[in-house]
Structures are given as C-alpha cells and as structure tokens.
Specification:
Blueprint: E1 4-8, H1 12-23, E2 27-31, H2 40-43, E3 47-48, H3 61-67, E4 76-78, H4 84-96, H5 99-113, H6 116-125, E5 132-133, E6 137-141, H7 148-159, E7 166-170, H8 171-177, E8 187-191, E9 195-197, H9 199-207, E10 212-214, E11 219-224, E12 229-233, E13 236-240, E14 242-245, H10 251-255, E15 265-274, E16 276-277, E17 284-287, E18 292-297, E19 300-309, H11 318-328, E20 336-337, E21 346-352, E22 359-362, E23 369-373, H12 379-394
Helix pairs in contact: 1-9, 1-12, 6-12
C-alpha cells in the first residue's frame, strides 16, 4: 500500500515536496489556504542561483540594515519593534552573522545547491513543462568597486569547492553580451551556472504531478489520529501517515501546539512584471547599486527586490513600486515599461530565519510530522533539493548528510 502524506502549502516548496513524494510512490494531498503560487512564489524573480546562495546573516549586515531603517528607499531595511519574539529573532540574527557561523551557513547552503540543478533537469526529463532559462545571470554596476561584496561572497563559496565560474566583463563587453544595457554600466560579472524560471509556471507544472490539490482550504487543526495524522483543511477532514508543513510564514503558528518555536518572520519584497518599448533584456540581470533583480520572462520584464524586515502589512505602496522602475531604468539602453505598468505591482513575504537557513526535517517527539519552511529569498533555488530531502525522510530512506544543518531543533 502506498504511503500517504498531506503537504500544507501550495508554493514552490510545498509543490516540490509533493512532486517528489508522488514520484516516490506516496499518495499525496496538497492543501493551500489561498491559491497555488499565491504567496511569495508568485512575484519573485525566479532565480535559481547557486552563485548567490549565501546567508543574508553576514558580518556587518545588521549594522547596515539598522542604519537604513529610516531610509524609505532602502533595499535592506530592518524595522525593529519591542515585541519579544522579534527582539529574540534579531539577537539570533546578530549571532548568526558572526564570521564562523556565516562560513558554516555558506557550506550548508552549498551542500544543498549542489542538488538543485540536477533536480530541475529531472523535472524536465520527467515531462514537466515550465519556463526556464539557462543562460546564467549577469551582475552589472556603474563601477567595478560595487562588486567588492560580490567578489568576497564568491571567494567564500570557492573556498569550499563551488563549481561555478565568474566571467568579469567591461561595460562594452557587457553591452555586447546583453544589448539592452545602457551606457551607465561600467562593469559586469557573468555567473555561468545560474538559471531563472517563471516561478508560477514551475509551481503549476509541479502541481500536475503532485497528487490531489485543495485550494482555499486553510488548515485549522493538525492532530494525531488513531493510525496517523489528521488535518482539518477548510471543510474537509483529512488523514495520512505523514504531514509536511511547508506553509512559509504560517508554519510557526501551525507548529506551535507541538512545542516547536520556529523563528520565522516575513521579509517583505516587491516586484512588477511589465512589457514595454525599446530593447528588453534577454537574460537575468542583477543591478549591484540598487540591489535589484531583472528577469526576462515570456510575460514581460520582472523587476524585483527589497528586503524589509519588520513589516506586517500586505499593502503594495505606489512609491515602492515606482522605485523599482526608477532605479532600474538608468541601467537600460531604451527599454521603458508600457503605460499602466503600475497596476502590475506585487508584494509578498519571504519566510526568513535568523541564520538564513531553511528548516527541513522531522519534528522531534512527533513521528510523521515534518517541516519544510524558512527558505527566505532562496525558495526557488532550494525548492527542488528540499523536495528530494523530504521524500527521502518521509519514505524512510534516511537523513541525507547535507540536510543535517537544517534540523528543526538546531540551536538558534
């Protein structure tokens, strides 16, 4: 008899888990409080970027974030409150940003991203159809000095055997590679192994092979049943041998009754997706000075960025959306969004842990209850490997060595 599993969460993490479980022979039901790909999986840049998969909690980052707390145009903004949970998160974030912990986080994420590209290729080999681009990501800047943090990050990855490659380009070489770039670009670096996808198309492709899908079914109860677990989702009562909580920022609330205090907070980000006039980028671009990502998608150019910690409202402020365009346009030769682009503005919350590492594993003391949450800005990058790890854990194949740093009960 097939092993049964309920996956809570209809974003890229939940669907990657559901797909891998289905491929492993499990009988899977996915429950989503809203719509599939309706949260952070909808409007993100869609980058699959092992070259940038390092912890946000890095030496000096807390000082920089607090310094920009009052800057309405800051790309990284930390807005602390007096809430004890939030203060505890900030304290853990500060500890995780120490050099030795940062290096450990780099190694942990590298161990995970080594599985990502093969898993993505496996999706295609298995017949899934989704939008994916394999031509790398090009980081551009007005001046080479803007790459100092970038070079330091890559050097840290290289210390641990990262297989990727950086190709440094002059401004003219960058414009030859990507004709959409304007004269303001003075230097560039191409990350060769990275890719980008349309994240919503990826989620919906995974959903075609992820078992039963229940949308608009918020979970109110998770509990033990006579022979396994029971979940109340919307109007339905479901039963399964295993439950996987992959619900992003909702995961702490769902797991609190089981004595799990997950330090996951929402980090707000913004994007627009628009067609336009002029020469549109054909590749993914990272703009170093404003810290924005541009993704060339079939639906248009997506401009995404900003990381606001401490925000709880789900509004889409017009000034933040306009800032995306105002900050991106100077790097482009002549591309401009078509009229009405303001209506494409999006905002969402990435589930962020203080050490910038996801939480993946079984809840101690509760056999059959698993967590896959807290992936921050790396959901698309880490999703395929997370799905594979959860499938191996649920089906009893053991804990892969590279999953150990992401344990539910690790020290924060």
């Amino acid at each position: 008899m097939a092993r049964s599993a309920i996956v809570i969460g209809g974003g890229v993490i939940g669907l990657a888990c559901a797909y891998a479980l289905t491929e492993a022979g499990c009988d899977v039901t996915v429950v989503e409080a809203g719509e599939l790909a309706g949260g952070a999986s909808r409007g993100n840049a869609g980058w699959v970027t092992p070259s940038l998969a390092t912890p946000l909690a890095a030496p000096g980052i807390l000082t920089a974030g607090l310094r920009s707390a009052l800057d309405p145009r800051g790309a990284l903004v930390i807005r602390p409150s007096l809430d004890t949970g939030w203060l505890r998160w900030l304290w853990s974030f500060k500890r995780a940003a120490r050099p030795e912990q940062f290096s450990a986080g780099v190694q942990a994420l590298l161990g995970m991203t080594r599985h990502t590209l093969a898993e993505l290729d496996g999706y295609l080999d298995g017949g899934l159809a989704f939008e994916m681009h394999r031509d790398g990501i090009v980081a551009v800047a007005r001046d080479r000095s803007a790459f100092h943090w970038f070079d330091d990050t890559f050097a840290e990855l290289a210390r641990y055997g990262f297989e990727g490659e950086l190709i440094h380009l002059s401004g003219d070489e960058a414009r030859t590679l990507e004709p959409a770039l304007g004269d303001a670009v003075g230097a560039a670096t191409r990350m060769t192994i990275d890719r980008h996808v349309d994240p919503e198309s990826l989620v919906r492709a995974l959903a075609t092979r992820a078992g039963r899908i229940l949308e608009h079914a918020p979970v109110s109860v998770i509990g033990r049943g006579a022979t396994g677990w029971r979940v109340r989702a919307g109007d339905e009562s479901l039963a399964a041998e295993s439950v996987i909580v992959a619900a992003g920022t909702a995961a702490p609330r769902l797991l609190q009754p089981f004595g799990v205090d997950l330090p996951i907070v929402g980090a707000k980000g913004y994007s627009i997706t628009a067609r336009g006039s002029g020469t549109a980028p054909s590749s993914a671009l990272y703009l170093c000075e404003p810290k924005l990502g541009l993704s060339a998608l079939e639906s248009g150019v997506r401009i995404a960025g900003m990381f606001e910690l401490g925000r709880t409202d789900d509004s889409v402020p017009a000034d933040r959306i306009r800032q995306l365009v105002d900050d991106a346009v100077p790097y482009l030769r002549d591309w401009r969004p078509e009229p009405g682009w303001e209506t494409t503005g999006w905002a969402g919350f990435r589930p962020a842990t203080p050490d910038s590492l996801p939480v993946i594993g079984e809840v101690p003391g509760h056999p059959g209850l698993f967590v896959a949450a807290g992936h921050g800005m790396l959901g698309v990058t880490l999703g395929p490997a997370t799905g594979r790890a959860i499938a191996e854990l649920v089906t009893g194949r053991g804990v892969p060595d590279w999953v150990a740093p992401f344990a539910v009960d690790r020290a924060w």
